[in-house]
Amino acid sequence: MTTTSSPTLTMTGPRGLAAWSAAATGVAGLVLLVSGQSAYVDRIAPIWTPVLGAVLAFVCAATVRHRRAAAVAATVFLLPSAIAGIFHVMRALGAIPLPVDWLALVVSIGAVVTLWATWRLSHPLQGDDGLPLDTPRWVALVGVLAALAYPAIKTSWVVGSSWLAPRGVGHEVDAAYVVPVALALLGSAAMVVALRWWDRPSPRWAHHAAAAGGLALIGLGVSGVNATFTNSPPEGPALGVLVYGGWGLWGLATLAVAARLSPRRATVTESA
Questions:
Q1: How much is the pLDDT for 271?
Q2: SS3 string of 145-181?
Q3: For 37-47, what is each residue's pLDDT tens digit?
Q4: In CA terms, which of 57, 118, 134, 173 is 20 to 30 Å from 77?
Q5: Residue 132's beta-bridge partner residues?
Q6: DSSP 8-state secondary structure symbol assigned to residue 91
Q7: DSSP label of 43
Q8: For 4-30, how does the pLDDT look when each residue is reduced to its tens digit (9 = 90+)?
Q9: How many CB atoms lie within 10 A of CB 146?
Q10: What is the C-alpha to C-alpha distance for residues 193 and 182, in angstroms, rounded to an integer?
């Protein structure tokens, strides 16, 4: 007579990394919250968000049935802290004239590691058959329009329009104009390039690059909207919501495109 035992969850590999990094991030986030050093972080997102995100990531590592849902929810709350790592590095390099907040930097690094391990464990962009999810082509067009929204507004300022223009800020062709325009054009070109792989196999790096870019844009968008309402700009929140909300929409579209790209899709479809 043979007996079967229920499978046990071993905290090794991606699951172990997700669990341990989530625990470390949650503890660091709690210390940051209790210490009262959250003023700078609050401009990125409310300080409780990485704590909740860490809890959800731990749930993702400890469960099987609701793993994808927990991963998506954890991503929403951990992304702003992960994106904040860029600003902490800029502070460490002297690009931002503020002292380094080492505890907040630890939270940001923990959020990045936890997100990477959680996504590697749960594969939230894949369907039940292991292939990325189907996405309509028009989503790429939405991404292009969202990407071009901010450059279009800045261009209108350069040619003399004052619509939503911040007061006391010069509007000319300088780095503050060229950088977002260049990034938007690159992002739009990437969307167009992705269309050539819509019904055929795509390089593996394309899926991962689009996923990483989409997550980064969503994090920047959420952080920007939060900062807009936190700082209460004199001209009102309309510009911030339009710009950073557009970045978030751009990120969602990029993530949806990532969910469509697959090096296996055409091969599996033809053999089915």
A1: 45
A2: HHHHHHHHHHHHHHCCCCCCCCCCCCCCCCHHHHHHH
A3: 655 555 677 77
A4: 134
A5: 126
A6: H
A7: T
A8: 443 445 556 778 888 999 999 999 988
A9: 24
A10: 16
